[in-house]
Every structure is written in structure tokens, then in C-alpha cells.
Amino acid sequence: MSEQPILVTGATGKTGRRVVRRLRAQGLPVRAAARGGEHAFDWADPGTWDAALRGVRAAYIVQVDGTKLVRPFVERAARHGVRRVVLASGRGIDLPGYANDRDGVLEGLLDSEAAVRESGLEWTITRPGWFAQNFSEGFFADAVRAGELRLPAGDGAASFVDAEDIAAVVAAALTGDGHAGQVYELSGPEAVTLTEAAATISEATGRKLRYVPISPREYVAELVQQGWPAADAAAFADVIEPLRNGTDAYVSDGVPRALGRPARTFAAFAKATAAEGGWPA
């Protein structure tokens, strides 16, 4: 069994590559699957699924938002003899009014969760909130580089979760006991406003970062001016809504429940990223 690989889909993404690194640090065989990764895998091409699943004992499933591909994938995984799956889902999906969902992301997430629950396999569901790494390598990295974070988030806050904590939970669920049938909502240990986040990043990097709250209409107009299609700009403004409304400010217990330790603070994330040279130059 120990020679059977663990499949990690989305292996080049924020959590996937960290899960791969953690598993390999434990000396475990990993099949790192992505469109441009070590092992070619494409959610849109089911012809790549069998090669990814063959001989696998456990799988980390990072789904594509707005799709219902997890259900047929899990069914195929079961036929290949996969015994354990860990699904990356989303925090707040069972909270009415959590966010606008004009792209149908929620329906896909709910179907994916139902699929793994009904699969007959050992399953664990992770529901991370806003990633702290969105500031260093994601949505907000360009703004951090420019020194001004212009967002329609008002004075709202979020309990940003470190992707390293997400990866630690996923690795534990893929390899350890006691995680089957668990749903882990993942957050940091405290809510942080964007003003506080900007000040924390400024202190960690030694470079000034300023948060400027703007209206959703202004934000959409600025994105369109940058070349975004209007529909995409409006959809991304919807993504920011939980920050503005404070619906992602609550603290979840998934990290301490899964790992037996507190989640990493935003300040600790910022300092570690600076020490690793991970902030946008």
C-alpha cells in the first residue's frame, strides 16, 4: 500500500503544490497532476482521468468552479480502487446570502460535496475561506506590488487562512486516521480588515501598502478600463462581497480540530512570506 501513489490534482496551484511538497517531505509517492504539471491532467478532458487514477490509493480533488465534474471523476476513482478522497470545497456554501453567485459556483460545489459523501469511499471535505496568499501570489498581488489596494470591501474583515495550514490539513486527511467523514471549515484565528492587512504587509515588507475602499461600481469600471470583460468584472466584484459584508469574518475551528494546533495568524503569514522572499517585488 505504501508504494501506491497519492494523486494531487491542481498540483501547480496554491494548495496543490504545498500538499505535494508536504507529502514528498514525508517520503510518500505523489502523482502531481495538472494541465502543465508533472503528470498531464485536464478536468475538461476525461481521457486524462484514467492515467491519473490508475494505481492510486488516495486523491486530493481540487475542482473547477462552476462545473459538475467531480461526480463522474469520483465514480471513476472508485472503479480504479481509490479508497480515500479529500475534496477542496468552499467556506460559507451552506450559509444563505453568503455571496452573490451569478456564475453558478455554489451549485457545482454542493454537487461535488454530495458526490463524495455518496461515493462509498473514505472522504474528507475541506472548506477554506479567503487565502492569505491572495495578497502575495493571487488576486491582490499586483495591487500589493503597486502599493495601493483598491477594493469594494468597505471596512469589512475576513479571517484569512494561510494556504500552508490548508495543505497541512489536506496532507493529514490523505494520510492519517480520524479524518474520514469530517468537514473542515478552514480559517485563520482572527478577523482582519483590509486596512489592518495592508498595515501588516507594510510592516513585514518595509514597503508602504495603502488600502483604498471604493464602490462596487467604481471597481467594475476600473477593471473594465484595465481590459476585463464587463461580465467578468461584475462577477469578480461579487467575489469581494463577503469581505464588504463581513460574512467571511467568522472564525472556523477546522485547522485546530484537524491538526491539534492553532491556525497561523495573518501577521505570521506576512513575516514568513517576507523571510522567504515571497512578496511581489
TrEMBL record:
It comes from [Actinomadura] parvosata subsp. kistnae. InterPro entries: Ergot_Alk_Oxidoreductase, NAD(P)-bd_dom, NAD(P)-bd_dom_sf. This is NAD(P)-dependent oxidoreductase. It holds the Pfam family NAD_binding_10. Residues 10-175 form the NAD(P)-binding domain. Coiled coil: none annotated.
